[in-house]
Amino acid sequence: MEKSTLAPHRSADPVDEDRNGLVYRPQDDTSLLIDALRDIDLRGARTVDLCSGSGAVAVSAALGGAAVTAVDSCPRAIAATSQAAATAGVILDVVCADLADIAGQTFDLITCNPPYVPTPPGTELSAPGPNHAWNAGPDGRDVLDVVCALIPGLLADRGAAFIVQSALAGGDQTVTALRAAGLRASVVRERAIAFGPVLRSRRKELVDAGLLDPTTDLESIVVIRADRTADSQRGGRHER
Question: Which pLDDT belongs to residue 1?
Fold first, then answer.
């Protein structure tokens, strides 16, 4: 997938329909993931956006010419994605389903902004908002590990997958898991951002759990790209 001048340069603002804050609002991680899509040609790419949330990434890919299926298990997110598509004037195949339900299909492009915030016991409701969109278990990998296991089976030959996550949830673990499945994987974008309300609300617990440096107020967000290359073996175990 070569770089294209038609890669997304704008995205819809799909938050107006979310007046009660029940869907994850596009933030720095969303924009970083969209920026990473500038590296590839989206025209005609069969795409699935996992954990679509507000629909910002799915809409941006569609604006770049991709044929997009947007998947989320939350009905409110599905409604938000559908409204975002209508507002932007693009067509999406919007599916309310668990991630495992997508197995059996293959795509040229996979995008995913999953829940990834480490959630020590007792912090599940530590910040207002759609907690299901960021709470991801004690180490932040409850959904990431599922995504890493699914991507090798979903990715078509010469396809690419882009995952955005916090380094707090083990970016190296994601790269290692994807490489172990026979994909070429690396960090292609990184941005340091100030703690948002969720991390601020559970800072003490994360420090106590050894997941957070007590001297910093910055979080590193990364985009990891995984490619199925011409010589990689589907389902293989070698690292590239």
Answer: 56
